[in-house]
Amino acid sequence: MLAALTLLCIAWEWRLAPLRPGGSALVLKAVPLAIALPGVLRRRLYTLQWAAMLVLLYFAEGIVRGMTDPAPGNRLGWVEVALAFGFFACALAYVAPYKRAAKRAAKPAKPEST
Q1: Comparing C-alpha atoms, which of 12, 64, 19, 15 is closest to residue 33?
Q2: What is the pLDDT at residue 20?
Q3: For residue 59, which of 31, 86, 92, 32 has the smallest C-alpha distance?
Q4: Best exposed site among 6, 39, 57, 62 by fewest CB in 10 Å?
Q5: Alpha carbons 50 and 80: distance in angstroms, whole number
Q6: Digit-coded pLDDT (tens) for 16-68
Q7: Which pLDDT belongs to residue 15?
Q8: Could you tell me the superkingdom of the organism this chain comes from (predicted)?
């Protein structure tokens, strides 16, 4: 989903519905997603954690542009919302068992009562 979101951001600002004819500098908004992509593909927990937080910015942008942009930008905004939410949910589902295991390992053992 992160790869799809990255491609959507590039296509949106370059060809599909740029703010200015011929493309806009907002295509650079895909750079942070592209930086996260290799680590996410390698399933690195740290990268998944910060990418999950990063993608919330794209979620918010998608809501704003979905409600305010003229067509086809509004539809692209809602697609961005769906992809961002999907990645966020998948990243949390993947990371959660590791976080629980780390929390259990860090918890000190209770002394036995006699």
Answers
A1: 12
A2: 79
A3: 86
A4: 57
A5: 18
A6: 888 778 777 888 999 999 999 999 999 999 999 999 999 999 999 999 999 99
A7: 87
A8: Bacteria
The CA distance from 57 to 78, in Å, is 14
Q: How far apart are CA 79 and CA 59, in angstroms?
A: 10
In whole angstroms, what separates CA 64 from the centre of its chain?
16
Contact residues for 19 (Cβ-Cβ < 8 A; gap 6+): 13, 26
What is the model's pTM? 0.86
* Residue in the structure block whose two tokens are 């390698």: 42
**φ/ψ (deg, to 5) at 19:** -65, -30
Instruction: State residue 72 phi and psi, 5-degree precision.
Output: -90, 0
Contact 29, 54 (CB under 8 A): no
Which one-letter DSSP state was computed for residue 109? P
Would you call 19 helix, strand, or coil by DSSP? coil
In angstroms, the CA 103 to CA 114 distance is 27
